[in-house]
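Q: Joint fold for the lines below.
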Amino acid sequence: MRPLAVTVVLAAGRGRAALVVVTTAATAALLLVAAAISRVDGSDSWNGPAQEPLLAPIRDPGTRPGAVLTVVLLTVPVLLLLDQAVRLGSTGQHRRYAALSVAGATRRDLRRWAAVEVGLPALAGALLGVPGWWLLREVLGHRLAEHGAALVPTTVGPGPWTLPVVLVVAAYGALVGRRRGSRATALVARGGQRSAPRPWSALLVLVGVGVLVVISGRGGSSSPLGLTWLISAVVLVTLGSVGLAPWAAHAAGAVAARRAQRAPTLLAARRLHANPRPAGRAAAAVGAVGLTTGVLGVFVADVVQSTSSYDRDDYLVPASVVGVCALLAVALIATSIAVHSVETTGEHRRETAALLATGVPVSALRAAQRTECLLTTLPLTLAGSVAGSLGYGWLVGASPVAYAGGLAALVLVALVVGVSVVAATALVRPWLDAAVDPANLRTE
Amino acid sequence: MIDAPEPILSAHGIHKSFGRTVALRGAALELRPGECVAITGPSGSGKSTLLHCLAGVLLPDSGVVTFRGARLDGLGVDERTRLRRISFGLVLQFGQLVPELTALENVALPLLLEGRRRPDAAAVAAQWLERLEVGQLATTRPTAMSGGEAQRVAIARALVTSPDIVFADEPTGALDTVTGELALDVLVKATRETEAALVLVTHDNRVAAVADREVVLRDGAVEPGPGDPA
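A: Joint structure:
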């Protein structure tokens, strides 16, 4: 007989388990890279460890924390994808939990079940993160070192410190599963739907902006206390913006639905309006990516314009690495939004099949899916990019040419978002096609 | 003697299987303009499959379905989809309305897909909602409607393009007796007013009784009627 834990995981679906394994493996590998960078030989000389030709910002003890933070931030889009992966099959989970609830399972039992459903594949993924890290060491460490500078340290090997990283990732997976389970059990208990998001997070943004205004009024943030206030204000604005994103998605969906003239736009806008939370969270991340690329655009143009060609690589290579990572993150976020879109389509497969039966072409449904993803990602990407370019440009007193770099970054990131959305929705097309199968019309 | 009008829809020798399960074995049916036909039979007799084949949702494995003389299997997927949108209306047992759209938007959807401007489509949809006495639900989502209300909205959506034929698959199956009778009354009345033919799939004799003619399916084939040759 199959062990209960395996039965629990398989009940949630192999596809979901596989996606959880992949995303937690990627997260663990990235965190291990970040930990390895932070453990690079403690030498505080500019040259760093003599035996390892690392990229300047990793080699330099002054910029190394920034490099660590950048790698840690790279896990954010992967974790978003994990969050969406955990949502896969939530209709089935809701039904399963309702049946178990009727059979006598308590809410506590269901939450434990949910934690195992995700925690076990997350543990497997976190363990696979170790060979994943090894692979990155080989490709982005040894191989790149042969051609110049390595991105991943090769002198830091696994040690006792690896275990906490693996366990933290596995525990996070279990926590996400448990949280999802709590929502499912709450829905079982209420039998209803969640209320619309409220803009309470705007208070955090207002407080953060207020602090920033006070700091600038008192002549800046050069003192340690001033710096603490500045960081606190930035954290408040960031948290507030992230919290505000679902409400913004809800509002954007409502506005787009009122103005929609075409059926696919109307379907997309109403779907966003009805279920704005997952899309809003992803949109917040994509807004952050837009902000990063906006800053990078002005930064790169400024460096090209004002730095001698001899020093240029020291700035441009790290900027290019961050830029590539940011664009990769956009692709991951677009995928996570497409997965969310597929999930909601699967939840309403009878209605989707009925749409096709009543004469809505499948091309309109595909267009609605693409529009929903674009509606979620594009406005915030562009807003983030503009804010990043203007903010950074104002801060460093950039020239008009540097602002042109920001504009180029905006066009590039918009193109990447568009291509990512088209690719991600094409990737999930088989699930949409399965949802419109006339077999879903059959009464049970 | 007045000749009967030509059939608007005809199906002959329809066979359809799902894997090893044979759903239809040579089923046949003819439908004349404005006629109301009930397809009845026990569970698993192939009623819904026949309706899906007649409406072009499914293509039969063998046999021919023609609408106004044109074979449905000769049309492409997009052409059949457009045919269902313009010339056919479909009413299902449940789950046919888009949960995220309001009643008005659900009814206006086929018109928007036909390229009508949204205010025009909304005006026509509103007229149909009023006609079916659910005008007050225009801004309500299906999840906030009763079963009977949702069925009326679905009937409005099926009729909004003034189709030639309305196909209804167990239209009262998910409703209580009183609500079901009201919904059926609305459906039959509305199709008669618009002179659309109506194909009703049901296992309920009371529903079948409103039809001009009853076709009984058993094991995927049409049972001969009392007047038919043996």
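Q: Anything notable?
A: The mean pLDDT of chain B is 88. Residues 65 and 184 of chain B are 27 Å apart (CA to CA).
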